[in-house]
Design the sequence.
């Protein structure tokens, strides 16, 4: 009754409908100009998470470690006068760039000189501003390389690799100004490369995030174009009509405008996740047009009345299309059940965007085609497509006469699915989605090989006493812990108060390299008394000691080993801490960007599993509301769970890990694939009334009418999502591949298993009539 009313309302007021849609679209287009891209990395953990809260508190105390870019060079002739001068010039040029806070390299290092008169350590720069000869530089080089404190931090003496640590202003990293800043840094470095012939390597969290973020953003624009192009080509091949292609593209263009405009109204920024929404709206919106237009052509071919055909499109397809879009929107909307802001925004905008597609298509398709001439015979030829009709005939035969085979195959698939599901692992890397040939990945692995990595890992010790970090007990424990952690190849050489104490001891003994060790006994108090009385007075010490000397941290860099190994590594470090600190182990915390990222990845994966369960439950409720019987709910959900199981099994067999870019597949694919079940069961229910509860006849009629649209829409969805396989990112490739496979399997499941189950629920009475078990 509702859609009968809507049919009359839309067609009788078609001119006003077009005006209203045009006005809304114009307004939404204006709202798009309010959109801005969001550059700041969004924490995947809730704000209330204890680890994240603790991490932010430590950042306030010691400063952030995520704004350091690393530049490296391998140069056996680094200490030739020309090359060294070029390196120093590079440092000065980088330091002059607006947005660069500080630059540190081996050319800036200091040594400690004992001032016996004032009983303080004086910092003396190794390399003066002016170096006049190679002999002078060689002498200074010998002195510099005799300081173990810097080895493994600013250089790798064994492989002649030297680093430059570029600290960027943190407030710029989260703005659009970060792009020209990074470009300026790279341009400045290229001047050095051309002058020396040395290839520079780049890494560090700011560089990786900025570079990868720009790559993803560029791909999103590309995929909008590809999605529109691919779906347009498929539409033309199916319908052989330019006007159908043109007006279908108009529908999705208006829908995309509404979706982006809605983001502008809410004041959302475009994140790397919400940037996927426009191509998704295109790919999801075209099937709406196919179902509506296919019904229009079928109705017109029966009676030749254009207006009557359009009325029946709204009446008979409107309700089913509404529910299909509602279930798809529910698949996206369940992301709002997570406590991650970026997912909340994605879920809200995507679900509203999908419902916007429904509204736009239901208003524009009947309205526009009411003004256009009736379909010509060539436009209706697709209804008699021999290949499609033969396929539908085979499906009917399979459902009627080979149900046992269908059930056997489905059972085998389920068994294989659970076996493959057992092999699926949840694991994520910082750069695993980047092609292994990309410079970001190559350079990261280069730094991991020579310096153990660039991701920060920190161990924070709270002594609960002012200047407690200088006590012999604390220093001895920290030193012992560092010795134990030397066995972990994933960790770099540490920077800590212990290393500073060893450096101080070496300085006390006039720079003798053999004296680089922790002072003990009476000499500890004497040597440590030469350190600054206020820890906050020294910029080096403030990196690992707070101003009161109560808290200290051990700074490590760690390789990108993945979330599974990162959890194992954290557990092993925790065991070492418990061994060393015993009863005081509760005062020691493991934190850092690497730990936060690993926990955030696991939290996101778990949240997405919750959203999948929520999607299944919510869609089941929608089905119960539509079909009013629990068995129909099971019929609509079951055939679409098997494709998800098989896709998960494929991940296990192929070796694709569960991570945010792959887990998101299941909620999206389930919400879309169940659409076929809805269209089929809606038509089946209509046919039951017409055939007076003849299940067999109703199933056959439902397959013949909806089967063509199911095949058409699945083709569009398959190739629409398949465009993402062309991405340079492994996660995006997995998204496109897995969704495409899932939807393809769901098509066969809905065309064969669903009808077979329906027919299996019917038994014939002795008089030849049917008795349904439903």
Sequence:
């Amino acid at each position: 009754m509702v859609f009968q009313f809507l049919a009359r309302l839309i067609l009788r007021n078609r001119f006003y409908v077009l005006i209203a849609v045009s006005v809304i679209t114009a307004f939404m287009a204006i709202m798009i100009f309010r959109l801005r891209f969001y550059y700041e990395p969004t924490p995947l953990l809730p704000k209330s998470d204890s680890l994240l809260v603790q991490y932010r508190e430590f950042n306030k105390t010691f400063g952030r470690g995520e704004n350091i870019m690393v530049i490296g060079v391998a140069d056996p002739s680094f200490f030739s006068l020309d090359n060294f001068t070029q390196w120093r010039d590079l440092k000065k040029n980088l330091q002059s760039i607006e947005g660069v806070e500080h630059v540190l390299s081996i050319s800036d290092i200091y040594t400690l000189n004992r001032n016996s008169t004032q009983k303080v350590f004086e910092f003396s720069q190794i390399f003066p501003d002016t170096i006049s000869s190679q002999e002078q530089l060689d002498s200074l080089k010998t002195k510099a390389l005799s300081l173990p404190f810097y080895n493994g931090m600013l250089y790798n003496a064994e492989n002649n690799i030297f680093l430059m640590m570029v600290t960027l202003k943190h407030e710029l990293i989260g703005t659009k100004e970060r792009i020209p800043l990074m470009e300026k840094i790279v341009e400045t470095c290229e001047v050095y490369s051309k002058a020396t012939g040395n290839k520079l390597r780049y890494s560090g969290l700011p560089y990786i995030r900025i570079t990868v973020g720009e790559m993803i953003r560029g791909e999103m624009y590309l995929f909008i174009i590809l999605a529109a192009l691919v779906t347009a080509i498929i539409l033309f091949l199916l319908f052989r009509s330019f006007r159908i292609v043109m007006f279908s593209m108009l529908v999705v263009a208006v829908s995309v405008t509404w979706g982006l405009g809605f983001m502008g109204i809410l004041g959302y920024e475009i994140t790397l996740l919400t940037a996927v929404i426009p191509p998704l709206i295109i790919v999801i919106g075209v099937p709406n047009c196919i179902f509506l237009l296919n019904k229009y052509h079928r109705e017109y071919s029966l009676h030749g009345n254009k207006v009557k055909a359009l009325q029946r499109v709204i009446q008979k397809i409107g309700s089913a299309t509404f529910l299909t879009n509602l279930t798809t929107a529910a698949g996206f909307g369940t992301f709002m059940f997570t406590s991650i802001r970026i997912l909340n925004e994605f879920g809200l905008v995507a679900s509203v965007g999908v419902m916007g597609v429904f509204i736009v298509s239901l208003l524009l398709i009947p309205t526009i085609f009411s003004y256009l001439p009736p379909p010509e015979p060539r436009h209706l030829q697709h209804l008699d497509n021999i290949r499609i009709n033969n396929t539908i005939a085979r499906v009917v035969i399979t459902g009627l006469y080979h149900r046992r085979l269908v059930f056997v195959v489905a059972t085998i698939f389920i068994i294989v699915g659970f076996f493959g599901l057992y092999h699926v692992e949840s694991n994520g890397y910082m750069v695993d989605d980047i092609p292994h040939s990309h410079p970001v990945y190559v350079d990261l692995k280069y730094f991991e090989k020579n310096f153990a990595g660039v991701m920060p890992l920190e161990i924070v010790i709270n002594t609960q006493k002012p200047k407690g970090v200088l006590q012999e007990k604390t220093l001895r424990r920290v030193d012992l812990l560092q010795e134990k952690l030397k066995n972990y190849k994933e960790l770099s050489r540490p920077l800590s108060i212990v290393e500073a104490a060893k450096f101080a001891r070496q300085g006390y003994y006039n720079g003798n390299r053999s004296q680089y060790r922790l002072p003990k006994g009476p000499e500890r108090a004497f040597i440590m008394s030469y350190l600054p009385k206020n820890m906050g007075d020294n910029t080096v010490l403030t990196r690992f000691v707070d101003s009161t000397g109560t808290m200290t941290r051990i700074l490590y860099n760690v390789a990108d080993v993945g979330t599974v190994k990162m959890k194992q590594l954290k557990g092993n470090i925790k065991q070492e801490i418990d061994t060393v600190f015993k009863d005081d182990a509760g005062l020691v915390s493991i934190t850092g960007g690497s730990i936060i990222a690993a926990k955030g990845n696991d939290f996101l994966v778990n949240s997405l599993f919750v959203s999948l369960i929520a999607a299944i439950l919510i869609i089941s409720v929608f089905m119960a509301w539509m079909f009013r019987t629990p068995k129909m709910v099971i019929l609509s959900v079951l055939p679409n769970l098997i494709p998800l199981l098989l896709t998960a099994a494929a991940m296990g067999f192929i070796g694709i890990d569960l991570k945010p870019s792959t887990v998101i597949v299941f909620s999206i694919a389930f919400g879309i694939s169940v659409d076929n079940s809805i269209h089929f069961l809606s038509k089946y229910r209509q046919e039951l009334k017409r055939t007076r509860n003849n299940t067999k006849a109703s199933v056959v009629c439902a397959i013949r009418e909806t089967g063509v649209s199911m095949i058409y829409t699945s083709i569009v969805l398959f190739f629409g999502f398949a465009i993402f396989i062309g991405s340079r990112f492994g996660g995006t490739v997995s998204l496109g591949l897995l969704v495409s496979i899932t939807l393809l399997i769901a098509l066969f499941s809905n065309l064969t298993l669903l009808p077979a189950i329906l027919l299996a629920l019917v038994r014939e009475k002795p008089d030849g009539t049917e008795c349904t078990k439903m």
